[in-house]
From TrEMBL, chain A:
Gene Ontology terms: cellular component: plasma membrane
Protein name, entry field: ABC transporter permease protein
Protein localization: Cell membrane
Matches recorded under SUPFAM superfamilies: MetI-like
Membrane-spanning segments: 12-33, 72-96, 108-129, 141-163, 184-209, 240-261
Species this chain originates from: Celeribacter baekdonensis B30
From TrEMBL, chain B:
Record-annotated ABC transmembrane type-1 domain positions: 69-280
Family annotation (Gene3D superfamilies): MetI-like (1.10.3720.10)
Protein's cellular compartments: Cell membrane
Classification lineage: Bacteria, Pseudomonadati, Pseudomonadota, Alphaproteobacteria, Rhodobacterales
Protein name per its UniProtKB record: Sorbitol/mannitol transport system permease protein
Length: 276, 290
């Protein structure tokens, strides 16, 4: 920006921006702080901000009492598995739409998007019955399939917009040199599209990690990921603030960090390219 | 440019995605439609029979449906109002030069990455609890009676929680839109003596209109399906005070095992969502140069 701004004005903006930023972030900060307090300090009135005795006791208790790591592992399997499966299905599809477009490409893309608009509750009953009859209720594999299907349109769309930016001549040159289709995709396209694929992966892991309709309705104990694990704190454990905070912090920390890295790609992925 | 050979292989490569999504859409959807015409309760297996439109009649005339529909509309509109207005002002603020821009941006978008069950539980217990919540402490500090948010204003409280989760989304998209604003046009109008409010109203806001529409449409799709926040905080209560359509159908199908009634509700929800989807698809389709 060419405009020069007076230092005074910049200082005022700095003040307001930080106040608003901290206010929005405060619930998360408060949760993290509370997770290191004792239960008595957690509900102290007036509230204690920093001058308390820091302890890791809550984290130990949460793990011992409700086996945090098993649910953490379920979340990893569900989000990682569904993203990987989604990529395997979506990369060839996005390749063919980006480099061999036909008259129907636009229609197919729009139709894929339309499946994302289906409200999940509209198919809750049949999905529940299908899962029950196939013995898929409360299994990792069942949820991986559902999460793959609900996020597949987003994966295809994001990859498509990234592939579109790669000049097709490079792929043609590889083809001229005698590369097979498989090696063209695997060794020429994929390495060039790594940044795009990486942000697609990141966004999808975030979406799958936080998905809280199917994971709550189709799991019980065995395959429950962190979303369902936290929901079990609803009562009466929710009244133990320090433990609730420790469990919450552990549930959101991995994705918070990933999210911050992916913030630039987020807009593009979530608006299906309508805002870049 | 494309050879015949590559056309054929392109068709093969796209088919797994198309077939899977087609199955995902058609199989459960046709089952929902079929169940919606049956009297079918999981507690009474083997008693299924065709009942025509009875399920729809019961679902649509149930007072709970009207309450849920009203709550759904209030929830969607309330959150949209807060996030769009808040988002415009936040984007305006964050677009100015200031110290620590990167860090503040990270702080502001953080709530978007918090899973719905966590944000609902944290707000419910640590902030809105009438005895030990931070808001209760704050009220007492000012000598006021503590307010039981989720019992006395359940829907408004949920609107607050959901708005906190979606404000970052609106801000991020509007901020991206602001950054593509033509600075020279702004400077020219500033030199011509246009006051700030006029520059905002006649230059910035029209530039944002497209991004605002996208925010509204995408959020509406997600907000129609708010579920975890209600399940964790109020269970739809007290009464039906915070039951939305999604939660009502969930109760009917998985808590009362009424497959037929739940399916009829599902069909109604799909029709409502489609009305919004049509507009969104048009917006995105216009932007797509395939």
């Amino acid at each position: 920006m060419a405009r020069s701004v007076s230092t005074n004005r910049k200082l005022v903006t700095t003040f307001f921006a930080w106040v608003v930023g901290l206010a929005i972030f405060f619930p998360i900060l408060w949760t993290i702080l509370t997770s290191f307090k004792t239960e008595a300090q957690a509900i102290a009135d007036p509230p204690i901000f920093f001058n308390f005795h820091w302890t890791l006791e809550n984290y130990v208790t949460v793990q011992e009492r409700s086996n945090y790591f098993r649910h953490f592992w379920n979340s990893v399997v569900l989000s990682g598995g569904s993203t990987l499966l989604g990529l395997i299905i979506a990369i060839p599809a996005a390749w063919s739409m980006a480099f061999v477009p036909s008259r129907r490409t636009k229609d197919i893309l729009m139709w894929m998007l339309s499946t994302k608009m289906l409200p999940p509750v509209g198919v809750l009953v049949p999905m529940y019955l299908i899962f029950r009859n196939l013995g898929l209720l409360d299994t990792q594999i069942g949820l991986v399939i559902v999460l793959t299907l609900i996020n597949l349109p987003i994966i295809v769309w994001m990859l498509y917009t990234y592939f579109k930016e790669i000049p097709g001549e490079i792929l043609e040159a590889a083809r001229m040199d005698g590369a097979t289709l498989r090696s063209e995709i695997l060794y020429v396209l994929t390495p060039m599209a790594i940044p795009g694929i990486a942000s697609t992966v990141l966004l999808n892991i975030i979406l799958a990690w936080n998905e809280a309709f199917w994971t709550l309705n189709l799991t019980a104990a065995k395959a429950a990921p962190l979303t369902a694990f936290i929901a079990s704190y609803s009562s009466p454990e929710g009244l133990f603030y320090a433990k609730l905070s420790a469990a919450s912090t552990m549930a959101i920390a991995p994705i918070l960090i990933m999210g911050w890295f992916s913030q630039k790609q987020l807009v593009r992925g979530l608006t299906f390219g309508a805002v870049k | 440019m494309a050879t015949k050979h590559s056309r054929a292989s392109a068709r093969i490569m796209i088919s797994p995605a198309v077939i899977l999504l087609l199955g995902w859409m058609l199989i459960p959807l046709s089952m929902t439609l079929y169940f919606s015409f049956l009297r079918y309760n999981l507690l009474m297996p083997g008693m299924e029979e065709f009942t025509g439109l009875t399920n729809y009649k019961y679902f649509l005339t149930d007072p709970a449906f009207f309450a849920a529909l009203t709550n759904t509309i209030l929830l969607v509109c309330g959150v949209l109002l807060v996030t769009v207005i808040g988002g415009v002002f936040l984007a305006l603020l964050l677009d100015q030069p200031f110290f620590g821009q990167g860090i503040v941006r990270i702080l502001v978008i953080a709530p978007f990455f918090v899973m719905p069950t966590v944000s609902a539980l944290v707000w419910k217990n640590m902030f809105m609890n009438p005895v030990n919540g931070l808001f209760a402490h704050l009220f007492k500090f000012f000598g006021l009676e503590p307010f039981d948010f989720l019992a006395q204003a359940p829907l408004a409280s949920i609107i607050g929680i959901v708005s906190w989760q979606w404000l970052p989304f609106a801000t991020l998209i509007l901020l991206t839109a602001f950054q593509s604003l033509d600075q020279e046009q702004l400077e020219a109008s500033e030199m011509d003596g246009a006051p700030w409010i006029k520059r905002f109203w006649f230059i910035m806001l029209p530039h944002l209109s497209r991004a605002i529409t996208v925010v509204i449409l995408i959020q509406t799709i997600f907000l129609l399906s708010v579920f975890a926040e209600i399940l964790v905080t109020t269970n739809g209560g007290p009464g039906t005070a915070s039951t939305n359509l999604t939660y009502l159908i969930y109760m009917q199908s998985l808590l009362q095992f009424d497959v037929g009634g739940g399916s009829a509700g599902g069909v109604v929800a799909i029709i409502l969502a489609n009305i919004v989807a049509i507009f969104l698809m048009r917006m995105i389709g216009k932007n797509l140069d395939a």
